[in-house]
């Protein structure tokens, strides 16, 4: 058994104590003075430490670390068609392994215990994720409305079958690229497989004006309407971005029960636009947070994503303090866990032992009063000292 000691912070509460970890779950949460009674082998943390649930990076493309900084200042469609897709055609399995390792290490070092990754050569990414010890939901990107060999639907289904029930840490999603790059027939096939297996469906949703226009031209529907027609509008759906959806689309999403992943840094950088987060939360929609790709966001740091989400929410809502820090922290933890169907995101007995230890013995943590505000607006990934995934320490701070 091991224990993490400090100020324990999750969406529900802030308290001092020790988290007892046995196997892959949280066995107990106890006062520090009772720690000796548990026969713990290893103890981490102490005074001036924060212990939080592992952050859930609900939309990533970790191997795209290779493209960091490339294609600056281009809108989404040009960025994809002129920069990203031509370079992706040159991927080799060896290159994917190399850059997936860089991206996953970056995610872990910045406090992400879970990633939800959507990319090509998913076999290689899954192998790296398992070796490095991150909890990973991985889908092989597929599309059939664009002639792009790495996104072959057949390969996507083969990957899914190969890895089904193969790993404790690597779980599978079905990963249609977007509503304009995947046909209605293929979406329906994916919906059937999701229904059969219970797998989540992870899809880019209304991430650009061009996507919405193309879907309306083909089907006379919004992207949400197309997903409903395909049989995908349910609690297993994880839509990403939603930048160009309207209020009726968001009401449909809230009613049907899927999750939306908010990636504000990527949205604002590529599109100079993003969703009204306050409105989505008021509708009752489950909203998680994602870093998206290291290109264009620059870094896989979920703390920075929380901070950006809070600041941008004020602009879209037209008022200050539109989304409290505690809600933003919940989006990066328990709401992300809900999106993926994980019993995680809270520091409670029986929950997965995915935890992060933060060294708070630094000037920007003073005073330690409003801890939620500190976690959203003061912490950065470099403050992470230890990451525990599935009950096992997987990262020590590297200087």
TrEMBL record:
Instruction: Spell out the CDD domains in the cross-references.
Output: ATZ_TRZ_like
Q: Which UniProt keywords apply?
A: Hydrolase
Q: Where is the Amidohydrolase-related domain?
A: 50-394
* Keyword Signal in annotation: no
- Known Pfam families for this protein? Amidohydro_1
- GO MF annotation: an example: hydrolase activity, acting on carbon-nitrogen (but not peptide) bonds
Alphabetical list of PANTHER family matching this protein? AMIDOHYDROLASE-RELATED DOMAIN-CONTAINING PROTEIN, AMINOHYDROLASE SSNA-RELATED
Protein name (database record): Metal-dependent chlorohydrolase family protein
């Amino acid at each position: 058994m091991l224990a993490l000691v400090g100020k324990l912070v999750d969406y529900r509460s802030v308290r001092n104590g020790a988290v007892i970890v046995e196997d892959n779950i949280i066995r107990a949460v106890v006062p520090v003075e009772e720690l000796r009674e548990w026969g713990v082998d290893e103890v981490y943390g102490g005074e001036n430490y924060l212990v939080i649930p592992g952050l859930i990076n609900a939309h990533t493309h970790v191997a795209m670390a290779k493209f960091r900084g490339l294609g600056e200042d281009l809108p989404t469609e040009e960025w994809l068609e002129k920069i990203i897709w031509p370079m992706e055609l040159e991927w080799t399995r060896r290159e994917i392994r190399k850059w997936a390792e860089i991206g996953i290490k970056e995610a872990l070092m910045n406090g992400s215990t879970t990633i939800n990754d959507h990319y090509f050569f998913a076999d290689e990414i899954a192998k790296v994720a398992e070796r490095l010890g991150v909890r990973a939901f991985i889908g092989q990107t597929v599309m059939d409305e664009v002639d792009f060999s790495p996104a072959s639907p057949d390969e996507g289904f083969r990957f899914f079958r190969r890895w089904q029930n193969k790993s404790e840490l690597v779980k599978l999603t079905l990963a249609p690229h977007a509503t304009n790059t995947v046909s209605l027939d293929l979406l329906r096939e994916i919906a059937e497989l999701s229904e059969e297996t219970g797998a989540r469906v992870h899809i880019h949703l209304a991430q650009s004006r061009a996507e919405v226009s193309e879907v309306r031209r083909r089907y006379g529907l919004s992207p949400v309407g197309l997903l409903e027609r395909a049989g995908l509008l349910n609690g297993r759906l994880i839509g990403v971005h939603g930048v160009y959806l309207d209020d009726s689309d968001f009401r449909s999403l809230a009613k049907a029960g899927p999750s939306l992943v908010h990636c504000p840094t990527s949205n604002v950088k590529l599109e100079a636009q993003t969703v009204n987060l306050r409105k989505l939360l008021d509708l009752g929609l489950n909203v998680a947070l994602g870093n998206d790709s290291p290109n264009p966001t620059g870094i896989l740091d979920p703390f920075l994503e929380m901070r950006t989400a809070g600041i941008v929410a004020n602009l879209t809502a037209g008022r200050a303090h539109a989304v409290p820090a505690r809600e933003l922290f919940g989006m990066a933890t328990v709401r992300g866990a809900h999106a993926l169907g994980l019993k995680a995101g809270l520091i409670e007995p029986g929950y997965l032992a995915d935890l992060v230890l933060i060294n708070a013995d630094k000037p920007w943590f003073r005073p330690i009063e409003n801890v939620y505000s500190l976690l959203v607006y003061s912490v950065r990934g470099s403050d992470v000292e230890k990451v525990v995934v599935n009950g096992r320490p997987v990262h020590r701070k590297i200087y």
